[in-house]
């Protein structure tokens, strides 16, 4: 696979929601972006709060911004807060540097896009992203 | 129905895509927003260009902003361009005042949300929104 | 009177709503700002659409911006559109140059604030603002 | 109750102001927003400073953004400052993450809107929001 299609994005989100149901998580919002950071698919489950679309998208953008999952940004926010603050600035406030933004790669290591999930704990959000990406037979990079 | 659910939004977009296939339209992007203007579901078909998510969302926001479909805004853009320019300003550049932003109402006339579609001609975009809303047994207000 | 109080603003909006009921208008949103352009009181009637608070505020700001009611800005939008466009720019997109933004003055001609109304036709919006200001024994300047 | 009406918002603010008078607090500004984050009613008491409308609104938006009162955001600002900074970014600078932003829910736990209060200490601001919501026989979620 060379490009994320809408159909693959549907597979990813369906599997992420299945994982969330299995873990009995709070309502989630999930964004799947292409390699250029543009939305392919976004779903907000009933009861997920109003700014969740921006948070989910911000996690996915954060991962694409630095070329690895947002777990890396979360660690940097503690060790080098000035760097993460600056990223907020240069991105026009577009990134959310906590776990749950996961890169989607193919077998050759090429980045096809990113998944961002929000609604439960950051660790649980990330677990659902990983489950979704695996269901599409693609490779997750959590950072 | 009192609130648009994710499941209803899925019905709307599936029917809009069916209509588009029937009419042999270009790839579309469709946004379904709740009554407060927050995304419930957004789908960008393969080949739909990168700023389509913002355009689709901007049509739906435009309809919610003034309480009727964006066909009304499109007419005002000719008769009162300074009003539509001002709406762009006070909304922070969030509205797209051309047909294809359609309010979703229930039988009692209550606004439940809006659908915004972009990718083909504005008239065709709007026709798909209307088909989607009808498939969910809800009422379309095109403006 | 030297300053608009919250209590006077309440008088203005109540009388504006009474006028609207008398004329059988659509649901309105009304903003009363002080002389510095800061909100004292804002009311959105049930069924008034979601961007009406910004539109009402933008009319009131527009009146304060140029020192007369927005009927003057509306005329200028036709005769000198580049001026009104520029005002949009320098105000950061804050003004709405159509009738319904009315200055509130005292008997000495001092500006105490402005009222902005939106929801029906611009002429009807303005008539309600005038009725509200009269009920507070203050002087309306429509532009 | 399914939707906050202007009349219910009036009840909330009147009771909040009564509580403030009882506690002898400084002049307050109170915003009541609907579930989508759009103003229904905003009142600034005489003597309340000029940016209070934005602060009150920002508290209410903050609560709606994450689906619980801003006391939760205030705690997160200490434990995960990068998350709260990011929320500021993705919201376009719209949130104020200190106590005094309180969700308004009905008996079934559905979010109908939010109240934001500012002017005294954050704890006192919040106490007035809680009193206002109780007076409307609705349920407060402080976070």
UniProtKB/TrEMBL annotation, chains A, B, C, D:
It comes from the Bacteria. Gene3D superfamilies: Haem-degrading domain. Pfam families: HbpS-like (PF03928). This is GlcG protein. It comes from Roseibium aggregatum.
């Amino acid at each position: 696979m060379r490009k994320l299609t809408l159909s693959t994005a549907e597979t990813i989100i369906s599997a992420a929601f299945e994982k969330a149901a299995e873990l009995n998580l709070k309502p989630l919002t999930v964004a799947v972006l292409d390699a250029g950071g543009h939305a392919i698919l976004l779903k907000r489950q009933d009861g997920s709060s109003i700014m969740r679309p921006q948070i989910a998208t911000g996690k996915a953008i954060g991962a694409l911004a630095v070329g690895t999952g947002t777990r890396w940004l979360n660690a940097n926010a503690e060790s080098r807060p000035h760097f993460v603050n600056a990223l907020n600035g240069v991105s026009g406030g577009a990134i959310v540097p906590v776990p749950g933004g996961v890169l989607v790669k193919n077998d050759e290591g090429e980045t096809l896009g990113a998944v961002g999930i929000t609604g439960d704990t950051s660790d649980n959000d990330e677990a659902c992203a990983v489950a979704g990406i695996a269901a599409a037979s693609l490779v997750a990079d959590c950072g």
